[in-house]
Amino acid sequence: MKDLKSALSAWQNILRIEYVISDANVLKTFQQATFATSQQIPAIIRPANRTEVQDCVRIANQYKVPIYPISRGKNWGYGSSVPVQDGCVVMDLSRMNQIVDYDEKLAFATLEPGVTQQQLFDFLKTQNSNLFMSATGAPPDSSLVGNILERGLGEGPYGDRFQYVCGMEVVLPIGDCIHTGFGRFADAKANRVGHWGVGPYLDGLFSQSNLGIVTQMTLWLTPYPKYFQSFYYAIKKETALEEVVNTVRDLKLNRLIETAFVIANDFRALPLTQQYPWAESGEKTPLPEQVRKNLRKNFLGNSAWSGSGALYSNSKEQGRVVRKLIKKALHKQVDRIEFFDAKKARLVQMKILQPFIKKFFGFDARTFAQFFFDKNPQRGIPITEAAGLTYWRKRFPVPTDINPNRDQCGLIWCSPLVPFDGKHVMHALKIIEEVVIAHKFEPNIGLNCATDRSIMITVGIVYDREIPGDDQQALNCHNKLLEQLNAAGYIPYRLGIDAMTKLPQPQDDYGKLLQQLKKTLDPNDILSPGRYDFRNTWPD
User: Fold this and answer.
1) What 8-state DSSP symbol labels residue 260?
2) Each residue of 106-150: pLDDT tens digit?
3) Strands (E), 286-377
4) What is the Cβ-side half-sphere exposure of residue 43, based on CA atoms within 13 angstroms?
5) Under DSSP, is residue 275 helix (H, G, I), strand (E, B) or coil?
6) CA 172, CA 50: separation in Å to the nearest integer?
7) Can you spell out the DSSP letters for 8-20?
């Protein structure tokens, strides 16, 4: 029988009373997300190390109290820090924020779950390191480990981030601890550099799952190139997108482009520079088409879609050759393509040249250079601008301390995976745009090209939670979108807390296997029940 009172007392004995939180105001902040939720959190526990995590898990088993681990709770648009099911005590791992190991020559860092993007970025700077991480559009104070375990995407050569980690330390649901790969051997020299270890590969069991709590992970880093270039291209006609997608795929398959990047529509690009134009739209939503065209003209050089990328070269000569090949492949399909290296980025930002630069480029090249070079995530730099898209429909400016949960911003992500093929992309986009516009939202779409053979489409349903009825309308939009994409065979690669039961029925015994794993590893069902376990497909 569940005994919360006894569990809280036992947790206080091992963590100290200040790290077992039941204050109603604090609990309320952890129960907030960027969409409507009803789950109640009875308490928050904050262990500081792996031993305390193990002790907390054993207590949860003893008193049959479910726990829901989070790294830092910045999973905006997918559920923030809210558990999938009601009544789970949140285990906040943000106190576990140590960079445990680092090696410049072998290019890795070993992290605890509370380590943020900004923390690792700053650490590498203090080390005068020539290495950089794959940064995401998530805020600088978001967890690296948390995003990677969700199989989140970054930018740079290691954008498919889960592919570039190894050596996990994991607390199992009964309190035991294991080390994946070679980590179980005391003197294994390849612990931080070997993916697979020897025997069954277990790391995947602990991503998008509720089968363990990852307390350490080794992340591989990228050496900074001798010559770096970023590039930007604009597509004015929607009809050109299909061929651009096919060309970019071929460039990736042939290793001319070796970085992850995003091809964004105007509704993904515009929130980087401004918020919803309430006056120009006459207070109407979704955005009227003429206003949309005006915004494209004034801020995006008339582009309906825009793409970006980066080149990492060992010399200027190599970089120039690759740049020439990419220009040759894309110049007939895009309306503009611009490359920035350090010299050009400095040049277009010189104040004295601004009138000539604007006339030549036809848009504010200074801002573009700042965004696509100076603060480019392709260089491992964490940014806040992308997280600001959650404020698109808010009527007050984006604050410096971005917190969409607190500010009642509405955001729900829907993230189907499609083949890296223009026809599939256009088919999926047709479904997305029709459903989102029918529900009176702007189709905020990014084509995340992290791998060579597939594209993760991220669709942001962005709204203002303070407008009555919009929470339900956004949820209806998300559910309809998921239903139609599933029916077309475009299954999401990542799920929010409300979507765990909304996948098609499996055609095999996958649910049976998950049930057996869960019941074996977590016999008391105390670890994140309902999270990626698809228990609605279990035989029993």
Assistant:
1) B
2) 999 999 999 999 999 999 999 999 999 999 988 999 999 999 999
3) 305-313, 336-340
4) 22
5) coil
6) 11
7) HHHHHHHH-GGGE
The per-residue b/e assignment along 73-95, b for 16 or more CB within 10 angstroms, e otherwise, is: bbbbbbbbbbbbeeebbbbbbbb
CATH number at residue 406: 3.40.462.10
Structure tokens at 330: 């894309």
Q: Could you tell me if 350 and 230 lie in one domain? A: yes
CB environment 103-129: b (16+ within 10 A), e (fewer): eeeebbbbbbbbbbbbbbbebbeeeeb
DSSP readout, 376-404?
A: -GGGT---STGGGGGGTT-SSPPPSS--T
Count of alpha carbons within 13 angstroms of residue 241, beta-carbon side: 24
Classify residue 530: in a domain, yes or no: no
The predicted model scores a pTM of 0.95
Alpha helices by DSSP H, listed for 398-530, are 422-438, 470-487, 510-521
User: Interhelix angle for 316-330 vs 241-253, to 10°?
Assistant: 150
**Letter for the amino acid at 221?**
L
Q: How large is the angle between the packed helices 241-253 and 422-438, nearest 10 degrees?
A: 130
Two tokens at 335?
């309306």
423-429 mean pLDDT? 98
- The parent domain of residue 68 ranges over 4-92
Q: How far is CA 154 from CA 37, 56, 133, 148, 379, in A?
A: 28, 32, 9, 9, 11
First to last CA, the chain: 21
- Three-state DSSP at 210 gives coil
- Alpha carbon distance 264, 185 (integer Å): 45
- Does some domain include residue 290? yes
Task: Report how far residue 79's alpha carbon sits from residue 495's, in angstroms, rounded to the nearest whole number.
Answer: 9
Number of domains in the chain: 4
Residue pLDDT, tens place only, 4-38: 999 999 999 999 999 999 999 999 999 999 999 99
Based on the fold, state whether residues 57 and 81 are members of the same structural domain. yes
